[in-house]
């Protein structure tokens, strides 16, 4: 097959136009093009009102070798790359490998281990996804938090109630991201995620996809245990090796290989790991608020008259401002046509995040507007001081919201003027169980308030309407990534404990669903290799 890139067509082109563009680019007769599939479809919106679609296609042709030779010096014509994932060969050991956590990292790790014949055991502290959905909605509808079953904890992990954006900035020369996407499509994700430039799935489908993947893992001999937390590690020897896991039901599970994929909110597990002597480092993350605008305003600012076109979908944005106090302010986890959600996992705290359905049809666009924080500047005391920093501001947000899981909110005009909001305007906040108009400086560090005050007018210059007076800010966004990193060796293991494989977002190796899934594959491959080359025990 031959890949053609950079085929540019108007937004409203008809079906024949793409075929015509291929034939013209290759300089061939129509009959020579046997078939083609779209490898990628993006858009170029740099000229507002004149947006063009940009395609890459894979073509099956008569005499491909001669055509490639003829176009040898044309960078946009090349052989189609091989993106097939090759499963490593595995030798089952005496003990089954364990995956701790059933988020995207743990689930992809377990799937690879199961496909390799290693029959993994998945330990997940939360509930199966349908039961978890009921608990999550109880917080949103009735202000009832279940600390072990919520937006952060339970089958599917933190990304289950999300926009399901599947972008990753990670370098991926082995096409592991493609493997994640293909497994997602097999589990029910829309096929277009394999070729659109900004794929997303939405919450509704994510729930059933997680169930499908569980069914496949179980059919291959894997096993899930829900409602059980890993509370301790059993180790032996020098250098130390993992020999088992202490579970919250009082039992010990024997294993010599465990993938630790616990996400960024497993604060009690971080503490347990620290006490068990697992090496860890404090790392930067960000703090800020969610902002909500009418989606129509964002569509118009980004796409002009072409806003609302079905091939463009609801518009997104990505913004960065370097503030004069040395802080970077940036938009985070933008959710077009979505809602702001309550995302705490601990009692008496308020944490915001965003989600949407596949249709992205809700009235508001939302995004985190967050400011970078680092251990050196902001929480130097201790390796887990970042957790204490997050908790401090999450509790302040709980108090500012009224102490009943409503979130503190403020109109942009009031925030910029430094006065509390007493009422909200035209933009109706989507956060459930509700918001309290107030002063967000009560629950943000002063440097973050200053930096965001400076950033909003700067963002207005890039996106007309961004600092509209009635846009709503809701606080507080604290869980943008893990506050710690667990170092690992070239073989993917903790340098302090052979057999423990830290992975995913909680360990500091991922920042989203796709990158967590990719890291899960890597961790599974390391376990497969370690299984083949057992360490000497004497
Ligand atoms: C509301 C929301 C929206 C988001 N939207 C997007 C988006 O659109 N796109 C995107 O790419 N990313 C999004 N993210 C981020 C994304 O969800 C995470 O980056 C991703 O889930 C990280 O995957 P993970 O598997 O490393 O960890 P997690 O998904 O956090 O999974 C960790 C799992 O481990 C379990 N666990 C924790 N401790 C233990 C223990 N001791 N024993 C047993 N089990 C344990 C937890 O219950 C959890 O299920 C969103 C996050 C949230 C909260």
The small molecules bound here are: flavin-adenine dinucleotide
Q: What portion of residues is helical?
A: 25-40%
CATH class of the largest domain: Alpha Beta
Sheet with the most strands? 7 strands, mixed
**How many helix segments?**
13
Shape assignment: globular
Q: What does this protein look like?
A:
Residues 284-480 form the FAD-dependent protein C-terminal domain. It comes from Asaia krungthepensis NRIC 0535. Residues 98-125 form the FAD-binding domain. The protein is α+β, with helices and mostly antiparallel strands and 538 residues long. The protein has 3 domains: 2-76, Alpha-Beta Plaits (2-Layer Sandwich), CATH 3.30.70; 98-281 and 482-531, FAD/NAD(P)-binding domain (3-Layer(bba) Sandwich), CATH 3.50.50.60; 284-477, no CATH class. 29% of the residues lie in helices and 23% in strands. Strand 8 (230-236) and strand 9 form a beta hairpin. It starts with a strand and ends in a 6-residue tail after the last helix. Bound molecules: flavin-adenine dinucleotide (FAD). Flavin-adenine dinucleotide is lined by residues 100-106, 123-126, 151, 153-154, 157-159, 161-165, 229-230, 261-263, 266, 269, 333, 341, 343, 353-355, 504-506, 510, 512-514, 516.
Write a brief structural summary.
Pfam families: FAD-depend_C (PF21688), FAD_binding_3 (PF01494). The chain is of the alpha+beta class and 538 residues long. The chain has helices at 15-26, 64-70, 104-115, 129-142, 176-186, 203-219, 267-275, 295-303, 375-378, 385-400, 412-417, 446-462, 513-532, and strands at 2-10, 33-44, 52-61, 77-79, 98-100, 121-124, 223-226, 230-236, 241-247, 252-254, 258-260, 281-282, 285-294, 320-322, 328-335, 339-342, 352-355, 364-373, 407-411, 435-437, 472-477, 484-485, 500-502.
